[in-house]
Amino acid sequence: MTLQRQFLIWLGAVAGFVLLLHLFSPILLPFIMGMAIAYFLDPVADWLEERRFPRLAATTLILGLFALVFVLFLLILVPVLGDQIGSFAERLPSYIRQLVKIADEAGPDWLKEWLSDNESSIEGQLTGAARDVAGWIASLLQSIWSGGIALLNVVSLLVVTPVVAFYMLNDWDRMIDIVDSWLPRDHVGTIRQLGREINDALAGFVRGQGSVCLILGLFYAIGLSITGLNFGMLIGMISGFLSFIPYVGSITGLVLAGGVAIVQFLPDWIMISVVVGIFVLGQFIEGNFLSPKLVGDRVGLHPVWLMFALFAFGYLFGFVGLFLAVPLAAAFGVLARFAARTYMGSALYLGKSGRSSEDGDGD
Questions:
Q1: Computed from CA positions of residues 29, 30, 35, 38, in that sequence, does the dihedral angle turn out positive or negative?
Q2: What are the residue ranges spanned by the domains of the chain?
């Protein structure tokens, strides 16, 4: 088979995958969520199998504990976070006005003069920006609801997802062996190597970075709540969730928590310093313990590429696209690096002079 024909076959396969994804995106959400849960929990099942647990028993135990934690999260945290979101959106304009007033009183003369000339404009712009962000979040939640849950309804989502997760987790290794048996024998080594690299990148992000986000979210939420900061749990969870993009979560949380702390605690600079110290400590723990241990250097996803993938797939395929953005971005990154390595070793890149110089060096 010629290289051109192989390229056309793979191009047709990708085009068919995108077409099927577009056609069936309204009903894919519970299946993708089930696969994501199974992929996240597969190492735990393998660990139990190594300790002589039957795969079926390990799957049942893991998913049972996962469901228990998820239900507790829904019953305990969701009502609190929902209440804090509403209160925070309501009080955000007053926080902005107080921050502008504090800056006007405590700032240098040039800042006071500038604020006095532009106070109404600054307040209006900040309030408008906050209103736009709140509106964007509301529209995102509405699109998630209408694009995913409403089409399937909550009952079917809660029923189909655990069933898919159970069968996928129970049969994961068997399915991998079946797919491996389908690989073309002439290229099986290369495809397996690419598959391992994609799995390392995806596991590093989904399992590793996902665990980091969860731990940081709990750390920030508990720490800020202990300080008595208003909306501490909400700000902490937002910071942890956004930590999948390096530095974005900590900077966002520091700005939100710092602004709220200044309005709430001023002139008690000790409490303000404690709030700032929580984020400094969180970054120290992440950089020196969590990321090296849980993620390492396996991710290989540049933050800019990751953000582009999230926006692009979310725009094209809605909420389902957000779930698929990370694995597809990881796969594309691995394939792009493989293509670059292949090109750098090809005659197209080296040319005759490159080959001859290498031959001369070898002699």
A1: positive
A2: 27-179, 186-300
